[in-house]
Amino acid sequence: MNYENLLEYIHTSPLLWLILTLASFKLGIIIYEKSSKNTLLQPIIVAYLIILGILLYTNTSYEEYFKGVEIIHFFLGPATVALALPLYNNLKHIKELFIPILITLFIAGTFAILIAITILFLFDAQVTTILSMMTKSITAPIAVTTSEQIGAIPSLALGFVIITGIIGALFGSFVFKIIGIKHDSAKGFALGLVSHGIGTARAVEISTKAAAFSALAMGLSGIFTAILLPLVLIYFKG
């Protein structure tokens, strides 16, 4: 099979992307475990690099790739809901920290959006790029849906989400060590608030409590952003 035939087969076989995605993630898990769970070699990072390389090599668009893995996107919703279990198991701790949780959510959620706007505004970015950046700290299913509703670019928004999640997962533990954060609840909430699903995957490795607070932060951040973004849009469209 020559190069042209290979490209034609890839572009006409949507199921291939699903298989490649699952295989890449499985390979990422193997590499992660073999490296004694090195933070730089987390499964999603390895899978992302593999898939990105294949997409660039085959000149495949995001839309074409997404059609092949749409079923994974569908199951992201149920997978997110499944995080309710660690939340329920740590409900007592969550009730005790209810007020600090709300305060942190408001301050950090607002700051996450404002810093994205400020940085891109200083670089004279287009409005659609700024809108896409606003969803960087919420989980992928919500980010894609929200970006479509506010007139952003879903593929770009998803890219920002992935990059934000990876950065948070990579440097989260380092930041906790520098600042001196020792409580798993604080670590989990920070990871979920800033790095959504990828951060939550990292929080699961810390402890059950960290996973619970990360899942809580991820959900609340999605709701908060969905409410706050329309207010920001009034400024841009006004």
Describe this structure in words.
By secondary structure, the protein is mainly alpha-helical. It has two domains: 1-68, no CATH class; 81-237, no CATH class. Helices cover 84% and strands 0% of the residues. It contains 13 helices and no strands. α8 (98-122) packs antiparallel against α9, α10 (140-150) crosses α11 (154-179) and α10 runs parallel beside α13. The radius of gyration is 19 Å and the shape is globular. The N and C termini lie far apart (56 Å).
The radius of gyration computed from the alpha-carbon positions, rounded to a whole number of angstroms, is 19 Å
Q: What is the tally of beta strands?
A: 0
Distance between the termini: 56 Å
Main beta-sheet annotation: none
Poorly predicted parts: none
Order of helices and strands: HHHHHHHHHHHHH
- The best one-word shape is globular
The averaged pLDDT comes out at 80
Tally of discrete structural domains? 2
Counting DSSP H or I runs of 4 or more residues, the number of helices is 13
Please bin the fraction of helical residues: over 70%
| Beta-strand content | under 5%
Q: Helix/strand-derived class?
A: mainly alpha
In brief:
The protein has 238 residues and is an all-alpha fold. The protein has helices at residues 3-11, 14-34, 43-58, 62-68, 70-81, 84-89, 91-96, 98-122, 127-133, 140-150, 154-179, 184-206, 208-237.
